[in-house]
Design a protein that fits this description.
This protein is an alpha/beta fold and 268 residues long. Helix content is 40%, strand content 19%. The protein contains ten helices and eleven strands. Helix 4 (108-139) packs across helix 5 and helix 4 (108-139) runs parallel beside helix 10. It is elongated, with a radius of gyration of 23 Å.
Length: 268
């Protein structure tokens, strides 16, 4: 579901937050005094909690790339560590469609299903309904291009109605739903998203530190915050910081998706 906060409300969380440290892919940066000044790559001065970011650092990645290889980018087992190649897959942008906030404690497959729900579910539902209508037409006696072989009985208005249900629809509609639900991001141009592993350099220390300090800047230039929520989400300081920054900036569009719900919704 989506949450829209009141943009007129302002919160005073940011000045009191210490910059978070993490052992996740956003980088290993020790906490610093929250408002000390530092120099960005473009030469401008900014504070550790500044909500602006230079054009040099503002990057996003196509969602289809993030979901490639069955979501292998989210593999947290240590077999696929972040490299400079990940950063090169992102590109400089003026605006970011989605800021994807997640915890690396969440499994790869759960995140993949959640992203399929966020980006592909609507198209998959529409495609399966269209497939159902086409199959129904092709199964009509006047057309008879597809077989009707499964007897079906129903009561309507106190009368027993008999009908033959074609097995084609029982096979085609779920198949269409799964295919479109899993690969729609590759069929049409997708949204550009911030994903920490790709948009913050993981091997260059200076770029990495600058990117981490500019998290609030990435958020300021994002149109929507996509929260992949799990029970451990608010136990991670990074996740709490991102959500608090979003509220502090007065931004309103939050797409909140419980990861456990995504798996159930996709297969139902």
């Amino acid at each position: 579901f989506e949450v829209r906060s009141n943009p007129s409300v302002r919160y005073s969380l940011m000045p009191h937050l210490q910059y978070p440290s993490t052992d996740e892919s956003r980088g290993d940066v020790e906490p610093e005094a929250p408002m000390n000044s530092s120099t960005m790559l473009d030469g401008s001065k900014t504070s550790a909690l500044a909500s602006d970011i230079g054009n040099v650092l503002l990057r996003a990645i196509n969602v289809s790339i993030v979901m490639q290889g069955l979501g292998r980018a989210f593999d947290s087992s240590g077999t696929l560590r972040a490299t400079g190649k990940d950063y090169k897959q992102s590109q400089a942008v003026q605006r970011i469609d989605d800021f994807i906030s997640h915890t690396w404690q969440t499994g790869r497959w759960a995140k993949l299903l959640t992203l399929c729900l966020v980006y592909n579910m609507r198209a998959a539902t529409v495609a399966s309904w269209i497939a159902a209508m086409l199959v129904f037409i092709l199964e009509l006696e006047s057309v008879s291009l597809l077989p009707r072989s499964v007897p079906f009985e129903a009561w309507f208005g106190g009368q027993k109605l008999q009908h033959e249900m074609g097995i084609s629809g029982m096979l085609v509609c779920p198949l269409v739903f799964v295919i479109v639900g899993a690969f729609w991001q590759d069929i049409r141009p997708q949204r550009m998203a911030f994903v920490d592993k790709f948009c913050i350099h993981q091997t260059d220390p200076e770029l990495k530190k600058a990117g981490i300090r500019g998290i609030a800047g990435f958020l300021r230039h994002s149109d929507r915050l996509v929260v992949l929520w799990t029970a451990s989400y608010f136990s991670r300081l990074w996740c709490t910081y991102e959500l608090a920054s979003w509220i502090h900036l007065g931004k309103s569009h939050i797409h909140f998706v419980p990861v456990s719900f995504a798996a159930v919704a996709f297969f139902i």
